[in-house]
What we know:
- The protein is α+β, with helices and mostly antiparallel strands.
- The chain folds into 4 domains: 1-149, no CATH class; 157-262, no CATH class; 315-389, no CATH class; 479-601, no CATH class.
- The chain has 15 helices and 27 strands.
- Strands 2-1-6-5-8-7-12-11 form an 8-stranded mixed β-sheet, with no helix packed on it. A 6-stranded antiparallel β-sheet has the order 15-14-16-17-21-22, with no helix packed on it.
- A hairpin with a 4-residue loop joins β5 (46-49) and β6 (54-57).
- The radius of gyration is 59 Å and the shape is elongated.
Amino acid sequence: MRVFCREHKRGFFAPRQSPIKCENRGHLLGELDFEGLSKHPVEIGWQYCCNCEHFCPIDFDQEGLSSCPICTRRTSQLYLCDKCHLISFESNTPLDVKNFTLSADGVPMPSCPGCLRTASADQHEHDCDELGASFITSLTTCPICEERLDIAPAFPSTVAQYLKRTKSAHKVNVTFDYESGSFLPVEDGEFVVVNNGDPNNQPIVLPRAPRFATRRDFYEYYQDYYHCSKPDAGEVRILRPAAVNRAGAGWRLQATGLLEVIGDKPKPKPIEIPKSEPIVQKRMEEPRPRVNVEPAPPRVEVRSEPPTPRREEPAVKTCNGCGATIESRYAFCWKCGSAMSSQSNGPVVVRSKPLPLPVDDDEMTVQHDVQGGNDRGGEGRNNSMFSWTMPKPPDRTTGSRGSVLKLMAIGGVAFLLLALGLAGLTRSADAPVEAANPAQQQTVEQPAANQPAPETQPATTAAATEPKPQPTTATVNPEDELKKLRERRMDAGSTASERSKVYQAIAKVERQYPRDYRFTYERAKLAANGSRGNSRTEAFKALSVAAEKAIITGKANEMISGLEADKSGDFQKLAQGRQEWSKLMTALKRRDTSLLNRDHTND
């Protein structure tokens, strides 16, 4: 037989035996049930072109079944064998001489090219939405969309559903000819005549349009053949079909039908929740009433200065001899030397004037002396008759010396306080160390009272006081873990105990890295190469979990590349046209986790 390899783009001859191998370095293409044992579950993986007579693996991700990858002819009819699950197709430009062909009913003649078994009489035509093609098969359930095929269409039913379940050979597109008053065959007619060829069953005519865009569609095309109480836009549902009879080259209307229009449900409007604005912002946006406010008079700041301290001068008396004013504390006059009487003729004057700063008594005495001498033009200095009775003026050099001594005393006290403070700080810093030493000695001496201390007690005490280094945990690289698991998986033997240990190791690392799909991917490889009966199911479960992780973490393209590389190796049994493999690749390419099997993703 002739086989075409999609990967190497080459055709070659191969024996009719499974598995089918490529001529290029033993490349395995897959398995085909040449015996026709009707294995379950159904696995669709191979196609056969009746024109170029080549077997080829199906690639659902590229052109699918729309054309032949070898002769590039467009397909017109498809047949799915219920025994070997091979899809045979006929071209729209068929050749005259060939070994296998499809009849007008879509049945392979003389037999199926794969299992060489004759097709059964009970055939079903199915238009699969997921496959995107229509095919003939004896299966009762579609292996791709899982729709029942053995249920005949019945009314009431929508036009789309009834025509979908009716074979193409039993449908004829027609239009109404007003001159002859009958329905005549036209390729783009507005009606469809359904006749299964049984003389006991009367043919019917149905609208070809599955739905009306407006009510005008009903009144322009179908009001003379069907009744409808509320025509409007929506899906057409046939309650009772219109019956016709064969008349020459066409069909004549015998009984009017009844239909209804199922209106489209209005889409619920999204509830708009008003955003809560801050109360302050609303208050700012609200218009405020204008209030005419007269401008306030300028404020005059009055700063109250603190009162200047006043100092009262001592009381003075007037001398009876010279009329000078002398302080009452003196018994003689400074000017004339006459004695001051206790009862003076003149009034006692008490002068007070503001003094900006307090002044010592000695300085005041000096100022009075100078001031008095100035008032009289220096008479006090010339008159020295009673100088012995006058107080001796203080020496200014003594006052300046006293100020210097005060400054020196203040500096010495400050230096002494600074020295005492430094000494106190030094003692407080040394106090904890000195206090800790007796405690350490006590802790060392306590065990000595109970048991004899070893000779190396100082070294042990020093080691005990030193802090122990904390153990550091080495960072584990997931790449190293993945490399180790791959080596263990490849080195694992065929015994169940060895494979169980590897499986437990992979499961442990999976829990450690729950978002990394590569560890689950390794578990799928381990399950795919197993010898148990449920190894295929376990492998697809692991691949679904890995695909969901890859889609969530944004590594779907990376996993697709891995699957393309491994479908001829570890995943060879899984990739040969299985429905699960196709769904897995579609979910990864669309980044849609809902396409994955729910039972698989729950693991």
